[in-house]
Amino acid sequence: MLLKFVLASFVLLSSIRDGSAGMTSSFVRTKWPSEDMPVDHEVFAIPKGYNAPQQVHITQGDYDGKAVIISWVTPDEAGPSHVQYGTSKSNLQTSKEGTVANYTFYNYKSGYIHHCLIEGLTHNTKYYYRIGSGDSARDFWFQTPPTIGPDTPYKFGIIGDLGQTFNSLSTLEHYLESGGQAVLYVGDLSYSDEHEFEDVGLRWDTWGRFAEKSAAYQPWFWNVGNHEVEFMPEVFCVALVENVREKYSSPLWYAVRRASAHIIVLSSYSAFVRYSPQYIWLKEELARVDREKTPWLFVIVHKPLYSSNVAHYMEGEAMRSVFESWFVQYKVDAVFAGHVHAYERSYRYSNIDYNITGGRRYPVPDTSAPIYVTIGDGGNLEGLASSYLDPQPEYSAFREASYGHATLEIKNRTHAVYNWYRNDDGKRVPADSLVLLNQYW
């Protein structure tokens, strides 16, 4: 009975759409240092052994979750690029060969970057895998998702703009306590571009070792942000997401299905105007969505389409004007973004009937519209964006300038529980929650 009462209360709160009910949190974040952890911090430790694999991470390798891409870096030489894997830790029966490459950026020369695609896996199965050789070999594991189906439960973590400060460490450790099974990452990874010259590459390496404690065991679905565009005016050099392309083996826009969710990742920094490749791809992908099989439809971008924070205000307006009508037409459940270093959640509003001569100039309540979540609050060295528009716009439901992460737990085809957790002086504190009611069902 208590659970039913709590759920009913959440449903009531999630149905409120009057902007006057919006809340700006009064919480004031304690000033923690917004600077990167020193390179000799234990979370950046290089694995023991000659040429030991490091920066290990996995992501989904096909459309439906029966394949993974395992990636890692060897620092000294290419070494073996194969993965041994199996369903028994003591009997890794199968081996698959991968690829290896490296790159140079200014004075930095990367290690040897390996990618290995493993296909034909069985859903809902724990696999163990080994990379490296001899005394330097390292062992990990991952769990494949359950079979695609409308009532398949699953729990996602949502993280953005993480960086590698002590605040970042708090966010990652709190996420590891959450029971999340995969991460929806909304962009801006290492913030290495805040450093100079060869330290840019060095801080990619430290970040890869930092994220490994989660990313080696469960897939992170990557999106690129502005900090993956590395610009060095001293040498007239621009590297467009070179580190992400090489190390994280991810296209700039893509889609996957996992459990009962269809996930679409878009690039805020690639062309998206009419007839551009991304525009054409998204039009085709939305038509491909089968809500009978994957009732939950989520979109990941970097620039928020709705945000009332002063920082980066309306930078996502161009993409909103192009894609919002599709999000309403196809009843997207939620759109997750980063970029702004604070937290905000919207009501279901849209601005697709803009007509300045007819007086329709502002967003209006729309039950077919998605909820927009800005979660660029992972903890990076640039600190928090603490200034919001006043008064709070009607579309804004809750906003707070704090570090944190979120979880999205799908219960069945009709209900999912969403929680945002604040990092409060090292503690994980639930600060915003609601039950999402599926837009299709």
From TrEMBL:
One of its GO terms (molecular function) is metal ion binding. Residues 52-147 form the Fibronectin type-III domain. It comes from the Eukaryota. Keywords: Glycoprotein, Hydrolase, Iron, Metal-binding, Signal, Zinc. PROSITE patterns: FN3. Its cofactor is Zn(2+); Fe cation. Residues 1-21 form the signal peptide. It catalyses: a phosphate monoester + H2O = an alcohol + phosphate. Its EC number is 3.1.3.2. The keyword Ribosomal protein does not apply. Pfam families: Metallophos, Metallophos_C, Pur_ac_phosph_N. Belongs to the metallophosphoesterase superfamily. Purple acid phosphatase family. This is Purple acid phosphatase.
